[in-house]
Amino acid sequence: MQITLATQPFAALETEALVSYVFEETDAVQGRIAELDQAAAGLLRKLAKSGELTGKMLEFTLIHAPAGLKAARLFLVGAGKREQWNSAVLRKLAGAALRYLKARSVKNFALLVREGNATEESAQAIAEGALAANFETDKYKTDKKNDKNIDTVLVAGFSDAERAAGEKGLSKGRIIADAQNFARDLINEPSNKLTPRVLAEKAEAMAKEAGLAVQILDEKKIADLKMGALLSVAQGSVEPPRVMVVTYTPSNPKPGAPVIGLIGKAVTFDTGGISIKPADGMEKMKYDMAGGATMLGVMRALAALKPSVKVICVVPSTENMPGGKAQKPGDIQTAMSGKTIEVLNTDAEGRLLLADAVHYAKQLGATQLIDAATLTGAIVVALANVNVGVFGSDQSFTDKFLASSKAAGEKMWQMPIDDDYRDFIKGTVADIQNISSGKGGGAITGAMFIKEFTGDTPWIHLDIAGTAWNDDAKPWLAKGPTGVALRTLVHLVLSY
Ligand code: BES
Ligand code: ZN
Ligand code: ZN
Q: Has 351 been annotated as catalytic?
């Protein structure tokens, strides 16, 4: 799908649909909508008067053969209250318009930005929204006769003077959305098609194509490094584990800047191991590698956007299976850091992978750590599928991160990890245990466990178990993998 800027006047745009958006206000026909109304001989004012055009969020109004326009259709999307307007709303509107029109076999459309919205930020949001919305999860469907495709999106409403800003935004938006879709494509793969070895091959291919340094650690190298926590999970599967290390080094590093370590959980399938999960819904555990896929996607985007800080990405990957050699509840393992762990529940495996991976990222030189993981069902209880759970050991770093999440339009909510929760993981027979002996605070327990391996290094943990997968399609996004947190992480790295 092409997405390009068009600076000609809207009435002259030859397109299957001219799309714009309407704010919810007493007179919805204002500004550019009033111009459209004038071109269309007062049609919009009539619709507003009859209550059919109110501007309520995601209200859809489709008009065929509008008078005064070259476009075959005029399509207006409700944008909600003007006071609540921001680029996150525009991103959603662009996505919702694309999915609405695609479902009706439209092949191209032009999105006309409102007065004052012809900015780089808007163009970026439109590209991100449209390209993410265009992603479908039908890769394994063999009958594609009835496939519907959008070929071209024009972004209109920019003057010649605003063209450069618009082009810049589109280019940035394309890079970020393509990276997000790259991650979503990996997340969507079933575990028979995407084993740790296959994931590593794909990571290596991506890195080479993007011009990033890459190293794949196989089971032997992982054993040499004494990654006992990761290996304890891997031992239950016939598929060997892998650790991917992808590094971005800036050509002009900023003096005194941190080295950012991005760590992502990549359990290509989580059966729970010997502490096996119930059958109902277990198929969803193919997305237990979403954290790893997201971090690889971030690296893909960074290679093109060229930030001025060094970024080291570490993705530990394994299956969690109950094979004959699987670890059993009560087993004691030694992590790479030397800490001993009593594994009370083999289904709390993500934190075991991350224990070794954060330790390794520090050893490789990371001075600030961020991990992303589908870590706990408890975060779904706490925040549902709306907010990412954010845990941070350094408040100024966490504040900077949360500011990026706002700018990128991804909902995130900070959770506590103060010392009062340390007892949850205090060991009886080993240094620590991988689950709490008591009830409650499951997502915090998971975070506290990872924290043990971060030492004094500022660290943020993202629990994306509730947000990495959409159980239902949204008007602006297909059902399935979301690629959540990627945009925030890219924004954060670019902000140094
Ligand atoms: N992969 C799961 C967490 C998960 C749950 C991801 C729901 C996506 C959706 C994780 O490995 C797990 O099984 N966690 C356990 C921890 C428990 C045993 C302390 C959980 O949340 O039940
Ligand atoms: Zn598990
Ligand atoms: Zn898991």
A: yes
Ligand 1 centroid to 475 CA: how many Å? 28
Q: Does residue 116 sit in the same domain as residue 180?
A: no
Taking the alpha carbons of 416, 418, 421, 427 in that order, is the dihedral positive or negative?
positive
Active-site residue (options: 46, 277, 400, 411): 277
pLDDT tens, position by position, 429-470: 999 999 999 999 999 999 999 999 999 999 999 999 999 999
Q: Does 55 contact ligand 1 (Cβ within 6 A)?
A: no
Centre of ligand 2 to C-alpha 459, Å, is 22
**Same domain flag for 185 and 133:** no
Q: Mean pLDDT, to the nearest integer, of 340-346?
A: 98
* Ligand 3 centroid from CA 346, angstroms: 10
3-class DSSP state of 369: strand
The domain boundary residue, chosen from 124, 159, 194: 159
The single residue listed with the structure tokens 């399935």 is: 480
Are residues 419 and 481 part of one domain? yes
Sign of the dihedral through C-alpha 326, 327, 329, 335: negative
Position 27 pLDDT exceeds 90:
no
Taking the CB of residue 67, how many other CB atoms lie within 10 A of it?
11
Neighbours of ion ligand 2 (CB under 5 A): 270, 347, 349
The CA-based diameter of the chain, rounded to the nearest angstrom, is 80
Report percent pLDDT > 90 for the chain. 97
| Averaged pLDDT of the chain | 97
The 3-state DSSP class for residue 12 equals: helix
Q: Which of 285, 354, 376, 463 to mutate to test the pocket of ligand 1 (most atoms within 8 A of CB)?
A: 376
Taking the C-alpha atoms of residue 424 and residue 449, their distance in angstroms, rounded to an integer, is 9
Confidence (pLDDT) at 146: 77
Q: Which of 99, 351, 362, 487 is catalytic?
A: 351
Ligand 1 in contact with 440 (CB < 6 A)? no
| 91 within a domain of the structure (yes/no) | yes
Residue 235 Cα to ligand 3 middle (Å): 15
Q: What is the pTM of this model?
A: 0.98
For residue 484, give Cα distances in angstroms to 214, 295, 411, 414. Answer: 24, 10, 9, 16
Q: What angle in degrees, to the nearest 10, is found between the helix axes of 486-494 and 290-305?
A: 40
Q: Are residues 285 and 384 in the same domain?
A: yes
Is 366's pLDDT higher than 90? yes
Range of the domain at 258: 176-494
pLDDT in tens, 95-112: 999 999 999 999 999 999
Would you say the CB of residue 484 lies under 6 angstroms from ligand 1? no
SS3 388: strand
The answer as to whether 167 is a domain residue is: no
Q: Is residue 165 part of a domain?
A: no
Phi, psi angle pair for 52, to nearest 5°: -90, -15
Residue whose CA is closest, atom 8 of ligand 1? 465
Q: Is 193 a catalytic residue?
A: no
